[in-house]
């Protein structure tokens, strides 16, 4: 007869589900608390402190917010950033949707390879990609070289680089893959039988796209747009490297200079808080719309919300 | 070699056929579909009569679904032609065919209500709103979903979704309805109910049904005719009774219903009766075509045709002896498994009152006309 085993301490822990959960959750919760939650609280607190003679005093005040909304510069910069972000979102969608559609439905062979080709730029450092545009658009850059070699221009075009369009171009390039991924995931999840059923019921290709594929892919479009908008709204490098007189200053650059050169942490914090709130509002809104779409009978498009997720890096 | 159908019609043949039979609504003419080297459907020709319930039956990979998809227009045939009421349609896209499909997993549009799903085809055909609404309401009533029009498909049970799919197709009053294993996802009880309902609906509406299934019982229950497919070709076409009582080959006999197959060598085959030698036993059975003497053949006999007897078999009977290996009570019948001297097993369904001891030597006998000799 074999001896009956006694429970070890590990067995005892295993037998207590709550303790087990607590141990498993400790690390991620600690991580989020220390690296995200506490910094955000500090930011919020800073935005209510006062800067007096170049020194931050721990007096509570609304001065920073009054100054933020009282000076044209701050709301204008936020609006300008939003304007850039909206354009980037639109251009990304225009590029990403057809590409995702082709990948999901038309490409039969080497599908994974093609998908990787679209995604691979994400592996290249963001800084490198932004610099690449500097090289392409610069006065002695590739584009000007080509134009001159082709005899189309005689002098380098100077408006290419250092303009808002250069910023929008670079950001569109950088964030299009982020837009593509959720759209592709949603399109891939549409059962081919739905398209066949539509054609079986006398809908031609265009009608099938408009009435079946497009509505079912909206959650992916929404997720992709949210990515593009939130990420480019908070972008720092592209305006820094490629922006001109009118466009070097997006909201992140403003916050950076307030924390840096100006040493006005409280005001910088206040701007950050406002942008953070705006972003959170957008995410909340996108989530609400997505839930509503799901409720309307969406069973196939869930890849848009569930697996890809509506999460931005924030600002 | 298959030659593509040139589009011309043999008028003589057509009028002749028209006089003797109903005009076929669909004609599949030397239809072939290749995927690479693999021929999913191989030179298949078939006429489907208007108003009949035709089942394409076969194991998976037999080409039944590919055939259906070619009729629907989802797969272009590699060669061959499909005629609908005499007009070639193989080049038409699905949305221009007067054919509707009930899909295997229903393929209901998840972002539309039940009503919107059913109205979809009429909307695409620009049927006026008033007529459309009326027809949709009738279709919903026909499949008994009156209260559920506003629901989303995912709020429905499998059986209800099945009905929506049916209504969505039938509301368009197609000339031909294709059904691709429509009951496959339902539980047994519901499936039996739906089988009867589908059959009634088909008889009542007079629409031609082309039904794909791998379930031979389902095919036997519902069909006017069954096309049993094997490796992209037709193994046998006929009424359920034809296939059950007069299988053309070992494959058909084995596929349709339960049967005993006894392999043997053909001794002689004349006047529709063949004699097979199996070990030291000589068995006789009916045969359709003559079987070549000396060739391999099978004698198929259904378990319910076999009787258990203690002594010698009556004249005109085939008889084999063996020992009882198992006797399983199955309610209405006793299923007796008998091991023959060669080691081969036979199953006989005998009245459940029969007494039968394990290990006893018994004689199994069946009338000669109940056995059929077939090739592979």
Question: Summed up, what is this model?
Answer:
The complex is a heterodimer of chains A (315) and B (376). Chain A is built from 13 helices and two strands; from the N terminus they run H-H-E-E-H-H-H-H-H-H-H-H-H-H-H.
SSE order and pairing:
The complex is a heterodimer of chains A (315) and B (376).
Chain A: H1 9-14, H2 17-46, E1 50-52, E2 55-57, H3 63-70, H4 73-106, H5 111-119, H6 126-137, H7 142-149, H8 164-189, H9 192-200, H10 205-233, H11 237-242, H12 251-259, H13 265-295
Chain B: H1 11-20, E1 24-35, E2 38-49, E3 53-58, H2 64-72, E4 79-84, E5 87-88, E6 99-102, H3 114-124, H4 129-142, H5 158-170, E7 176-180, H6 188-205, E8 208-213, H7 216-222, E9 225-230, E10 233-238, H8 240-245, H9 250-255, E11 260-270, E12 273-278, E13 281-286, E14 296-301, E15 307-309, E16 317-330, E17 333-340, E18 345-351, E19 361-367, E20 372-374
Parallel strand pairs in B: 3-8, 3-9, 6-7, 7-8
Antiparallel strand pairs in B: 1-2, 1-4, 4-5, 9-10, 11-12, 11-14, 12-13, 14-20, 15-19, 16-17, 16-19, 17-18
């Amino acid at each position: 007869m074999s001896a009956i085993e006694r429970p070890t301490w590990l067995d005892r822990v295993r037998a207590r589900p709550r303790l087990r959960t607590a141990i498993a959750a400790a690390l991620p919760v600690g991580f989020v608390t220390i690296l995200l939650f506490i910094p955000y609280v500090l930011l919020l607190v800073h935005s209510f402190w006062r800067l007096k003679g170049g020194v931050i005093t721990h007096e509570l005040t609304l001065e920073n917010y009054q100054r933020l909304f009282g000076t044209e510069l701050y709301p204008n910069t936020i609006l300008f950033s939003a304007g850039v972000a909206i354009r980037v979102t639109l251009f990304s969608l225009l590029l990403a949707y057809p590409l995702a559609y082709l990948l999901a439905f038309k490409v039969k062979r080497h599908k994974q390879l093609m998908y990787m080709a679209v995604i691979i730029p994400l592996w290249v450092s963001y800084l490198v990609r932004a610099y690449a545009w500097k090289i392409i658009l610069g006065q002695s850059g590739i584009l000007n070289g080509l134009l001159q070699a082709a005899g189309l221009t005689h002098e380098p075009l100077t408006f290419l680089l250092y303009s808002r369009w250069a910023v929008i171009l670079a950001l569109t390039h950088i964030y299009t893959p982020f837009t593509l991924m959720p759209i592709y995931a949603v399109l891939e999840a549409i059962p081919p039988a739905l398209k066949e059923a539509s054609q079986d019921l006398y809908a031609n290709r265009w009608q099938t796209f408009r009435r079946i594929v497009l509505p079912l892919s909206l959650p992916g479009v929404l997720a992709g747009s949210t990515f593009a908008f939130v990420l480019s709204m908070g972008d720092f490098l592209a305006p820094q490297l490629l922006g001109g007189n009118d466009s070097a200053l997006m909201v992140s650059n403003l916050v950076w200079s307030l924390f840096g050169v100006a040493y006005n942490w409280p005001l910088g914090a206040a701007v950050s808080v406002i942008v953070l709130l705006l972003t959170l509002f957008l995410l909340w809104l996108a989530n609400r719309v997505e839930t509503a779409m799901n409720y309307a009978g969406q069973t196939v498009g869930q890849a848009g919300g569930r697996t890809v997720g509506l999460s931005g890096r924030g600002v | 070699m298959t030659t593509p159908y040139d589009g011309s019609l043999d008028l003589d043949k057509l009028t002749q056929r028209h006089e003797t039979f109903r005009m076929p609504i669909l004609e599949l003419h030397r239809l072939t579909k290749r995927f690479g080297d693999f021929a999913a459907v191989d030179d298949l020709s078939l006429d489907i009569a208007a108003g009949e319930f035709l089942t394409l039956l076969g194991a998976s990979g037999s080409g039944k679904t590919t055939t259906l998809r070619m009729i629907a227009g989802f797969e272009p045939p590699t060669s061959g032609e499909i005629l609908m009421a005499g007009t070639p349609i193989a080049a038409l896209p699905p949305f221009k065919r007067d054919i509707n499909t009930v899909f295997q997993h229903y393929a209901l549009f998840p972002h539309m209500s039940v009503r919107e799903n059913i109205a979809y085809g009429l909307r695409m055909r620009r049927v006026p709103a008033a007529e459309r609404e009326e027809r949709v309401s009738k279709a919903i009533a026909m499949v008994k979903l009156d209260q559920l029009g506003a629901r989303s498909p995912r709020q429905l049970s499998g059986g209800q979704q099945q009905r929506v799919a049916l209504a969505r197709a039938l509301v368009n009053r197609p000339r031909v309805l294709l059904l691709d294993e429509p009951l496959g996802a339902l539980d047994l009880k519901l499936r039996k109910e739906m089988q009867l309902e589908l059959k009634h609906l088909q008889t009542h509406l007079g629409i031609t049904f082309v039904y794909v299934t791998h379930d031979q019982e389902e095919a036997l229950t519902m069909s006017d005719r069954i096309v049993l497919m094997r490796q992209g070709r037709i193994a046998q076409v006929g009424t359920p009774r034809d296939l059950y009582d007069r299988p053309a080959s070992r494959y058909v006999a084995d596929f349709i219903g339960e049967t005993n197959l006894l392999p043997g060598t053909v001794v002689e085959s004349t006047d529709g009766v063949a004699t097979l030698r199996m070990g030291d036993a000589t068995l006789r059975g009916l045969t359709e075509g003559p079987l070549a003497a000396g060739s391999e053949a099978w004698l198929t006999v259904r378990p319910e045709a076999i009787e258990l007897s203690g002594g010698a078999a009556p004249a005109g009977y085939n008889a084999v002896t063996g020992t009882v290996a198992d006797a399983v009570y199955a309610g209405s019948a006793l299923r007796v498994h008998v091991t023959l001297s060669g080691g081969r097993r036979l199953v006989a369904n005998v009245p459940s009152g029969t007494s039968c001891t394990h290990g006893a030597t018994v004689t199994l006998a069946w009338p000669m006309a109940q056995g059929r000799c077939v090739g592979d």
